[in-house]
Amino acid sequence: MSTNAPVILEEIKALPPEEQEQVRDGILQLQDRQRQWEEQKLELRRLQASSKGKGLLKALLEDRIRERMREEAWLKTRQPRRDSGVINA
Fold it and tell me: In sequence order, what are the residues at sequence separation of 6 or more whose Cβ sits closer than 8 angstroms to the Cβ of residue 54?
C-alpha cells in the first residue's frame, strides 16, 4: 500500500455519505475498466500467438516444399535412363 493510501482513506471516510458513494462508484468503474483492459490484452496476445503460429507453419511448409523439390531433382538424376539403356549408379 502506498504511503499516501492511509491519508487518502481518512479523507474518503471524512466525506459525506453521498460523496463516499461517488468515490466508491468511481473506484468500481476503474476496477471494471482495468478488468476489461486485462481481458483485451489477453485476447490480443492470443491473436498474436495465433498469427505467429500461422507464420511458422507457412515457413515450415515452404521449407518442406523446397526440400521435396531437391529430393525429387536428386531422384531424377538417379533414375535409369530408358533412352540410353544405361543405369546410373
Answer: none
Q: What is the end-to-end Cα distance of the chain in Å, rounded?
A: 80
Q: Where are the alpha helices (DSSP H) in the chain?
A: 5-13, 17-78
CB neighbours of residue 36 within 10 Å: 10
What is the C-alpha separation between 18 and 30, in angstroms, rounded? 19
> Rounded to whole angstroms, what are the CA distances from 82 to 30, 78, 86?
80, 12, 7
Spatial separation of the C-alpha atoms in residues 35 and 87, rounded to whole Å = 72
**Whole-model pTM above 0.70?**
no
C-alpha cell of 74? Answer: 536428386
Query: Taking Cα atoms as reference points, which of 10, 32, 12 lies closest to residue 22?
Result: 12
pLDDT tens, position by position, 28-56: 999 999 999 999 999 888 888 777 767 77
